[in-house]
Design goal:
- The complex is a heterodimer of chains A (161) and B (208).
- Chain A has helices at residues 4-18, 21-35, 44-62, 96-102, 106-116, 122-129, 133-160; one strand spanning 91-92.
- Chain A is mostly helical and 161 residues long.
- In chain A, helix 1 crosses helix 2 (21-35) and helix 2 packs across helix 3.
- Mean pLDDT of chain A is 83; it is low at 70-84.
- Chain B is an alpha+beta fold.
- Helices cover 40% and strands 25% of the residues of chain B.
- Chain B has six helices and eight strands.
- Chain B has a seven-stranded antiparallel sheet.
- Chain B is flat.
- Chain B starts with a strand and ends with a strand.
- Residues 34-46 of chain B have low confidence and may be disordered.
- Chain A binds chain B through residues 1-2, 4, 7-8, 11-12, 15-16, 21, 25-26, 28-30, 32-33, 36-42, 44, 87-88, 90-94, 96-98, 100-101, 112-113, 115-117, 147, and chain B through 1-14, 16-18, 22-23, 25-27, 29-37, 39-40, 119-120, 143, 145, 148, 150.
């Protein structure tokens, strides 16, 4: 059984995927119903998160929103000589968060959620997503650039006004 | 003032939480299932014991189990196992949910509005012929589950008595498809009526 606090954590994970509160609750309820009744799960929260993730991306495929899906297996493996992406360097105003999340797709929002809120290590993220560390670092690098570009574009717009 | 992106994200997500009603619904949904947590908790406690203690406890437990098994076999071998019918389980579950007195997620007198709000239901709500508008007034609805199946929970008010009742609607379980008439029962002092209508199973719980 998940505690109220865990249910809220799982809800926020769903929100990172759906960007919509009602859809996040529905996704959590669907995921919970799929998981309940299963026995001997060693990591119930991790199992439910994977169930939620699979359910969400399966639905998106069915709704033909393929542009939002991370293209697993189609990204080049980036050498680790590459500079390690550091999202920690990025400073923002609180009010920037909504526009940043609006500019990202579900997989990117999920990545930020794992890094910032769940505080997963890179290894934990790559294990959960079942991707290589190189693929993960590549995605994180692109994500950092995308966030930085969004912030600088918004900053230029504000100066012009 | 600018703050690190991760702190800003943490703050953003912390501002979003499930409502009390949503939390209660999910807690209740879990309440009908046993989870692996009990097994894991037991295993964790087991690992905390030292080996000699474990062996001693295992020996005592084994002896107790042998005695209990011998006693059980002697007493019950010829008896049929207890069987709890689906009707009984439904009556207990409907009464249990009714007595939780959970707030409606939508307050309205319109079935169409409830249907629109409960968008995840895979069936169409009905106005039951057993509950005419002259006597019964809809007050609202919420999600719930019955025997693991997503269901609608509607709040009804009896205009004559002023009492509130809870009406459940869910697709008819296969075992009840040939049910005729109304099944009545009590659970924890709450009267429950179950019947099938237009492909749905309806359950009404409330005062006499």
């Amino acid at each position: 059984m998940f505690s109220r606090e865990e249910l809220n954590q799982l809800y926020r994970y769903c929100l990172s995927l759906t960007k919509n509160e009602e859809a996040a609750y529905d996704l959590l309820q669907d995921g919970l119903e799929k998981c309940l009744g299963r026995r001997n799960i060693l990591n119930p929260k991790g199992y439910l998160m994977k169930t939620i993730r699979n359910h969400f991306f399966d639905n998106m495929r069915h709704e033909k929103m393929a542009r939002e899906i991370a293209l697993e297996g189609q990204e080049p493996n980036v050498s680790l000589v590459f500079d390690t992406p550091s999202l920690e360097d990025i400073l923002v105003n609180r009010e920037d968060v909504v526009s940043i999340l609006d500019s990202l797709n579900a997989a990117e929002r999920e990545l930020l959620y794992f890094w910032a809120v769940e505080e997963f290590t890179f290894q934990e993220i790559s294990d959960f997503l079942n991707v290589s560390r190189g693929t993960l670092l590549s995605r994180l690098h692109r994500l950092r650039k995308k966030v930085q570009l969004h912030l600088s574009t918004n900053s230029e717009r504000s100066e012009k006004i | 003032m600018k703050i690190p992106l991760n702190d800003a994200l943490k703050g953003y997500y912390r501002e979003h939480s499930l409502s009390q009603d949503q939390l209660e619904a999910l807690v209740q949904l879990q309440g009908h299932y046993k989870s692996g947590e009990n097994v894991n908790g037991f295993l964790a406690r087991l690992r905390a014991f030292s080996r000699p203690k474990l062996i001693a406890m295992g020996t005592v437990a084994g002896l107790v189990m042998l005695i209990a098994l011998a006693s059980y076999l002697g007493k019950n071998l010829s008896e049929k196992p207890k069987y709890i019918s689906l009707e009984r389980r439904l009556i207990d579950e409907i009464a249990y949910n009714h007595n939780k007195r959970m707030a409606m997620e939508i307050e309205t007198t319109s079935v169409d509005e409830v249907q629109a709000y409960l968008a995840n239901l895979d069936f169409t709500l009905i106005k039951s012929a057993q509950l005419p508008d002259t006597i019964w007034e809809l007050r609202g609805g919420r999600y719930c589950s019955l025997q693991g199946r997503l269901a609608a929970q509607l709040k009804l008010r009896n205009k004559k008595s002023g009492n509130l009742y809870t009406l459940y609607q869910v697709p008819t379980p296969p075992q009840l498809e040939s049910t005729q008439g109304v099944i009545e029962g009590y659970s924890k002092g709450t009267k429950v009526k179950i019947w099938t209508e237009s492909g749905l199973m309806l359950g009404l719980a409330g005062a006499e």
